[in-house]
Amino acid sequence: MSTSTEATRLAEDVTRLGDGRWPRFILRRSGRLLVSLWVLVTASFLMIHLVPGDPVRSALGPTASAAVVDARRESLGLNDPLWEQYLHYLQGVVTGDLGVSIGSQLPVAQTIAQRLPATAVLAVLAFIVAVVISIPIGVAVAIATRRGRARGLELGFSSTSVLLGSIPEFLLGVTLVAVFGVQLGWLPVAGREGASSYILPVLALALGPAAVLARIVRLEVLAVLETDFVRTAQSKRLREWKINVRHVLPNALTATLTLGGLILSSLVAGTVLVETVFAWPGLGSTIVGSIQTKDYPLVQGTVLVYGIGVLLVNTIVDAALALLNPQSTVAEG
User: Fold this and answer.
1) Whose C-alpha in 58, 222, 230, 246 is 20 to 30 A from the C-alpha of 306?
2) Domain residue spans in the chain?
3) Which helix H or strand E contains 60, and what residues bound it?
4) What is the rounded distance in angstroms from the CA atom of residue 95 to the CA atom of residue 84?
5) How far apart are CA 194 and CA 79, in angstroms?
6) Nearest 5°: phi and psi at 107?
7) 193 Cβ neighbours under 8 A, 6+ residues apart
8) Is 137 or 221 the better-scoring residue by pLDDT?
9) Distance of alpha carbon 177 from alpha carbon 275, whole angstroms
10) What is the pLDDT of residues 252-280, one digit of tens each?
């Protein structure tokens, strides 16, 4: 494929975006997002009603009097009909009122607002580290091992990436604590105090996804290196770094971005266990603590926020892919 042909196809794709298919794409994605949000909200509402026993009694303990339990149930609206509770919950979600914690009696939204920044920063930093590590390594290994070269490097890269990608974040976090925190004493292992406290939890979250992403980058780069337009660029005796930057990397990043979005979603979920290991004051440790104390309104609100975060990340990735590859919107109608 020549450069002029590639430019012509890009111009045709941009024209297609302008003929009304891009707005339809946005409407479809927005509709799916709203349906997914409704399912998520409904599931989080039913959570507290599907738990065996009385959640208020479980949270207050067996020593609480019946009068205290009834008063707390009344204040939480748990004595109302189920449909009325559901409508009230929907209204609260829309207005940002996620109820009141059974244990602390503080608004759930207030607790989440205090803990969310710590989790968000941890997940975003881990994602950035995973991308910064994986893309250069994947590209470099692909170029070095192209057409069967450097078999030893390929074997070492594959073995290491598979190993790191298969270790759970929880186990990796414990290992990092034991080595760098306990034995060597180089880094803090608990809390969120200073820049050094971010290093171990970020690495625990990022190393596994970075290994998986590096393998995907390598495979995509190897495929792009064998395409006609790369051969055409090579026949023009362009510098290798120009070919890699202008032609190889942009074409290899589409599939990488797709997987990257999924990885970011998994990083958000992975913070639950990692925050527990490092006593990180975020939503992950909050949801674990609320499950242990059976504070179901807090569990309910935290799960809802996690789910919304994952849905929004997936939607943003879909939109970014549509901008990078306009044909994806055309394919859907």
Assistant:
1) 58
2) 10-108+324-333
3) helix 55-60
4) 17
5) 46
6) -60, 135
7) none
8) 137
9) 12
10) 666 666 666 677 777 777 777 888 888 88
Which residues share a beta bridge with 309?
A: none
Where residue 77 falls (left for φ over 0; alpha for ψ -120 to 50; beta otherwise) is: left
Residue 138 vs residues 147, 155, 215, 221, 250: alpha-carbon distances, Å: 15, 14, 6, 8, 14
- The DSSP code sequence of 124-136 is HHHHHHHHHHHHH
Q: How far apart are CA 281 and CA 119, in angstroms?
A: 8
CA distance 66 to 75: 14
What phi, psi does 182 have (nearest 5°)? Answer: -90, -55
Q: How many residues does the chain have?
A: 333
SS3 100: strand
200 to 107, 122, 176: CA distances (angstroms): 32, 11, 7
- CB 267, CB 126: distance < 8 Å: yes
Q: For 105, left (φ over 0), alpha (ψ -120 to 50), or beta? A: left
What integer pLDDT is reported at residue 327 of this predicted model? 55
Tell me, what's the pLDDT at 2? 43
3-class SS of residue 226? coil
Separation of alpha carbons 42 and 161, rounded Å: 39
- Mean pLDDT, residues 299-315: 82
Of the candidates 311, 284, 310, which has an alpha carbon nearest to the alpha carbon of residue 299? 284
Is-contact 212 263, C-beta < 8 A?
yes
User: CB within 8 A of 260, min separation 6: which ones?
Assistant: 127, 131, 213, 317
Q: For residues 22 and 2, what is the distance between their CA atoms, to the nearest angstrom?
A: 27
